Amino acid sequence: ERRSRTFKVKIPAGVKDGARIKLAGRGEPGPAGGQPGDLYVRVKVARDDVFGRKGDNLTLTLPVSYPEAALGANVQVPTLNGPVTLKVPAGTPSGKTFRIKGKGAPRKSGAGDLMVTVEVDVPRKLSKEEKQLLQDLQDAQKASPRSGMGVG
Question: Using CA atoms, how far apart are residues 69 and 88, in angstroms rounded to an integer?
């Protein structure tokens, strides 16, 4: 006899992709009317639009403006439990990763970490004033031998 049945399955917080959850006694009946076997449910964790995942750690790419990266800033970072403030130090390069402890995927004892990678957002269009300010910055860097950023 073939039939469908529906079960409620409690999925533990922080479960990993591919994990198996055992439902004891919910499988096929045993031979000659014996006890039913166990049913195993394999978990497939869906992708998230905001966070990536590496083990118990969550990953996030955070766009910041050039002034925020160059001058430093306090920026809001989304987490599973609401936003937190991350201090981006002055001179932070694009691609730098910061660890926010305890804000990753839940696990039996606490939570993993949130790994935030800063990506400097370069604008595609600039106003005349913005272009002039950047030109002034470039000129100042060329004039300053210790900046190491000018084109010589």
Answer: 7
